[in-house]
Amino acid sequence: MRVLLVDLEPEWRGGQNQALLLLKGLRDRGHEAELLSANGSALGQRASQAGITVHSVSRGFFRIPAARKIREFLRSRRYDIVHANEAHAVTAAWLVVKRRRASTQARFVISRRVGYPIGKGALAQARYLAADRIVAISQWSAERVARSGIPADKLTVVYEGVELLALPNAQRRAEARSRFGVAQGDPLLGCVGVLSSDKGQEWLIRALALLRKKFPGAKLVLAGDGPCRKQLELLARELVLENAVVFTGFVSDIETVYAALDVFLLPSFFEALSNALMSAMAYGVPSIAFNSGGPAEIIENEKSGLLMSGPDVEEISGAVSRILQDHDLAARFRKAGRARIEQKFSAGKMVEAMLRVYEECVRNDSGQVS
Q1: End-to-end alpha-carbon separation of the chain, Å?
Q2: Is 34 helix (H, G, I), strand (E, B) or coil?
Q3: What is the pLDDT of residues 27-41, one digit of tens each?
Q4: Does this model's pTM top 0.90?
Q5: Distance between CA 274 and CA 58 in Å, rounded?
Q6: Which residue in 300, 286, 167, 192 sits closest to 247, CA to CA?
Q7: Helix (H, G, I), strand (E, B) or coil at 174
């Protein structure tokens, strides 16, 4: 199988992490996997360091430079799959595929990583209807694609996955907590993600103020950056929590955050899945999320973590208190959470499932897999 994965996002986010895991997984299984990325992108740099063949291009007006590069590749090289990993890549690949459908054997696959429906406009519909397969990252996301009028035979769910690395030992945990200025005995909560209004970090700061009445030493790490950082810092000061909320900015070695935590929280209102939640559970961190969207497919409530009804300060504080006070419950969530990721949300399972999608696309076209 020869795959050209297209991703024109310059920043490093969950989708780019999945792209890198997929590229490495395909290569390790003996397939040829190449990346077309934006000039200077974080994904391109990391993929190159991992030994992946990377082609770089300007994002340009309406993604024309990327479209030209894809067209050049399809003329001069043999690909089985052109896989658009994000929305800008969808546009670039569609500009080529819609004109070269009859003259190329490459199948067009789109990853759908968001929860909102595909637009009803002719252009939006045309881009997705041109795909041989649309891969949604959760059942919740797939349902919204289906509501947009996309035929069911074009739609498949492949859950994203994370690597299952060794659990942090006591020394590594102590070093991680020291990095964030947290005493070994103080409860540490954490959230990883873009600091934006839809991610709900405001509610964690408000819940921390209530939680510290019972756990005076409790602190909160917010790992990531974004448009709401100043607003969240102001809220922390207003609640006299400026010394209890740690704003880390972007953290390249994000595993150190998970190693330090006692509880992970995902207060997102609109999440198609969540790399951060899966990573926390893979690291054995007891986790809590809102009972909506993709996170509700990851956590089995009261078994591998806790699901909350929504942005309720008392409910959030109460859920955290349960885990901090009940050591048996915390231990059960640590074990069951990691097992849940291993069984259903590992990087290996994601790669194998995506390979089956590719093979089905090729088989449906030619009657046999290349």
Answers
A1: 6
A2: strand
A3: 999 999 999 999 999
A4: yes
A5: 29
A6: 192
A7: helix
